[in-house]
Amino acid sequence: MSNSNLFLKSGFIRAPLQNGVGRFVPQLQRIVLKFCKSNGSSRGLRDFIEQDLVDFAKQNPSVVVYLKPRRHRGPVIVAEYLNGDRVWMGMHNKTHSEITKWIEVLRTQQGDIASLRLRKYQYTDYPSVQGPWTPFTFKDPELNTAKLPDPKYGANNRLPMTATEKLRLMFEKQKLNDVNTAE
Known about the structure:
Elements: E1 9-11, E2 28-35, H1 43-51, H2 53-59, E3 64-69, E4 76-81, E5 86-90, H3 96-108, E6 116-118, H4 163-182
Parallel strand pairs: 1-6, 2-3
Antiparallel strand pairs: 2-4, 4-5
Helix pairs in contact: 1-3
Organism: Diatraea saccharalis (sugarcane borer)
GO biological process, one term: mitochondrial translation
Protein name: Large ribosomal subunit protein mL43
């Protein structure tokens, strides 16, 4: 174990509150936007507040949004999650679009996993030197550039006809019948 792990709390990654089993519970509980009204480095955060904050609050009714103006301080976003984690992000000289993307990242994650020493339920004295197995471990690399569906890779050539194709054929038959009856 490295020395950096001695000062981190340890835990398991799990879906909090069995999230997604019965219904989805957004994990972001509170977001605090700290900014200066006159400092130039807060311009992007002030633009976000003026243009997108109301829409963000309407789209995320479970998130409490606090605005905290501070004099002569850099812009900061603090996100608090249901599991008690707090994520602090400095937004010094960030643009409006960058701040929008970072707030979306904070909204969709479940807390600060980077500050957690991950534990596993399994343990072995002889870990694999080959690395973890993934579903793509033994796949042919040609699949990365292949245009699918391809019969070479087991694609079915006789795909069922789509509803649009059926309607198009029915329309063409009806058109031919109308032309034949008019003659």
